[in-house]
Design brief:
Strand content: over 45%
Largest sheet: 23 strands, antiparallel
Oligomer: single chain
Number of strands: 51
Radius of gyration: 33 Å
Structural class: mainly beta
Amino acid sequence: MLVLISTISWAQNKTISGKITDELNEPVAGATVVVKNSKTGTTTNDAGEFSISVPASAKILVISSVGFGSKEVTITGDIINVTLQKVANANLEEVVVVGYGTQKKTSLTASVASIKGGDMKSQPVGDLTNALGGRASGVVFTQGSGQAGNDASRILIRGIGTNGNSAPLLIVDGVPRNFSQLNPADIETISVLKDAAAVAPYGLGGANGVILVTTKQGKTGRPILSYDGYVGFQNPTIISKFLDAYHYALLKNVGAKNAGATEMPYSEEALQKYRDGSDPDAYPNFDPIGDMIQKNTLITSHSLTLNGGTDIIKYAMGLGYLNQEGMFPGIQFQRYNVSANLQVQATKTTTVGLSLNGRVEKRDLTGAGYNNQSLFENLINTVTNSTPLLYSNGLHPYMYAYFYDNPSYQKITGNTLLSQLSIEQKLPVKGLSVKFVGSYDFNPYDPFNTTNSGISSFRRSWSQPFTFYTIDTTTRPYTYPEIPITTLPSFSQEYHQTQAFTYQGYINYAGNFGRSDVTGLVVLESRNTNSQRFSAGRNNYNLPIQELFAGGSGETDLSNDGNSMGTKQRSLVYRVTYGFDNKYLLEASGRYDGHYYFAPGKRFGFFPAFSAAWRISQEKFMENISWLNELKLRASWGQSANLAGNPYQYQTGFTLYGNSAILNGSQTQGLYERAEPNPNITWEKAAKTDIGIEARLWSGLLNIEADYFHERRANMLLAPNVTVPVEYGIGLSQVNAGLMENRGFEFTVSSNYNISKDLRIGISGNFTYTKNKMLEIFEDPATFDNPNLRRTGRPYDVRFGYQAIGYFTQDDFTSSGELKDGIAKQTFATVYPGDIRYADISGPNGKPDGLIDFNDQIAMGNPPSYPAIIYGFTPSISYKGFELSLLFQGVGQRDIQLANSAAWAFDNNKNAPITVLDYWTPENTDASYPRMTTSPSPNNTVTSTFWQRSLAYLRLRTGMLSYTIPGNITSRWGMSMVSVYLSGQNLITWTPIENFDPEISNDRGWYFPTQKAITAGLRVQF
């Protein structure tokens, strides 16, 4: 009987499908489609498509979406396509995630930038931070490494305002967490909080800005199962070139000849063999980087999500997998993500939420685990004529054997669980509610940052000597002796774990009194973390059993180490807003914050902020200006803070060391005081001011947002500029004495235009300029009294050096080789024609003195650690189902001082960059490199403008071409949406620097270059 009833009921239903678009024919995702006067409903997918089973008696569907007018549509068939009209100022009615809550954009008085999670989907990146650059004003993302599993971008918000830690605070779903390894498919929005009004609720963590990540929640409607996956390949954006064997030998001879040698390092016969490759074993030509880097390495990602719900329970679940091969054998990164967000309407007034987000990260590293810098250091410093890639008989020299025959490894497994429970209860007073949030996090360990206390990882390291061969060229034919293994393997394990407990209690109020709107928020927050680390190792393994028990048992074969620590923070957050007539908006917010870093009685501080906005467009005198839809002025001032230095600097620090003394005939441990305490140490204090304007014109055809900002950062830690006698025994403590100013402006402009029903174009762009200045630092009179050398009043991290004015020429010297009268003498080394010449800027008396020394240094160019200019623009075009979107991102006013293997020939008898081929000779006086020498001349390696290079660039960061198959076709396949796409990352770069990537993080060239990726992908929704 039940089956019969069910069958009859099903037969009385019918399925309606269709697509919801806006007036520009763009799909409206997340629109609600319900049967009028019922609870039967669903939501549209990312393509704006829906499918709903309705009773046969249903007559009308009601379609609605935030920012659009609702529409009632009569059911006349099985397929219904509906166009929604945007309401006036719809884009400003959107909800923006802010600290500890949300606000309508209309009522926002703070400077907040929002990035949609959908903007980052399908980008071929292993770290989420690499998908964000260029998408928001005021934020710079610098990817200094392309190493798989260790390629996160450095993030700065509105430049640098401190000499200490400049990283912003990262928040995921309201709790301090790192978001870089989340599954991009789980991200709903990212908010960047920039001014005082936005960051004040974060107190001691807000001075450098805050990034809020919100994960996806379930939506009312039928279940929507979605798949997004891509597969592709990666290659370095640039492979730095160094001298081949022939040119290495040739230039060595040139340097020897310039030094007056009569016997050259390489004979003509040797030069010819290097050149023609006729004897590759004895006269090899090996490109350590180019030959060893793997080309077209794999990158693939797959995500599966399920979203839906009813009025009672909503759910969002996801699975993700990422596999990224490294550019060298043995390097690989894999990540497995799982997430589940549930929201239950337990009663009419009670909402319960549960969020779980877990992942497993697996990192395999080359050999015994070369880090980012040392691997490239070894490759770059390998002389190209020292060894072949392979011997002609197939035997393996050291470098090849290291990568391909080396049984050593380092494997790191990171396990992360982010869990969160929330209960919200509406109270009998209208608009008043309370909420509890509790989170338990089993946090990830950053395997490349040993000072990171947020850790949870397991590391296994096995180091085993391997066989390789060398060549004996004194025998005929050549012999290839095997290098004997003289040591036994070693093994170590390391375990890291951090548990974080965060508790938040909210009181929320929102009320309307005639033309007045009032909201209030109070949050009590408590956060504790506990971290432990333990490691153990053994040497001298006779058998390759990679476990601790199998190693040697001698006293010198055993090792172990470990430590633990805990942190605490207690806080009170508040925010009060008042709006009158939806035109005049006021807000006061702040945080009373306490942190374990500081001494008892000095741990708490108060950080308030105030902001206001005036919606001019709502005034009566603006009613007749139809082309101006929104115009808002806003301003804010407030204080926030940044933790300075390290914890417990208020206490005396000691170092433990062994074998300090012999007591009772035995060696004993000892400890010594390493620095005196500063019981008054405190946080950096930032006073921020912001003035902004927002405008929307011609119904969204043009949108503009611009800000001027200023920050004054006090209490920065400085080391006292005082020399104490050795007898004092310890170093002086740092003091809060630094003062710094940071100011600038930013703007965002966007436009979308519908050329025809099927053709639409759009573009958005942003630009930011920042400039800082050190106002108070400890400085010696030797630099402070010299206007050219003074550090005070200059940008942070600016470099000082000599001003290069070209090369010495033969006409600058007498017949005896001495510099002619009137030419300033250089004190670094004896100079010759072709050496770098420096300007005589000043002397001890402030005037040129004919001597090039310390007094002639000047501030050079722009700081290397951050750009002053950042910008990005995103053009897009769509035609029917085709869409092309591009993201260009660039920086300006950032310089680097190249040195050592990145600049000089034969530094420490190593190789040289290919740029040295253009060296000075009497016939080539406009060369880019000074005269050739067998080792760098001290005169030519001093810090100077000669080696300064601009790191400005414009990069096609992302490009995507997609095609969405029409819904009337995919519905026949049982799918609501199918889209195929081609996507690329770091596709094209325009930059003045030669031979290196402009995001280089090391002045010697010891870095993994950024990866270029090209992928093909598929999106499907059921």
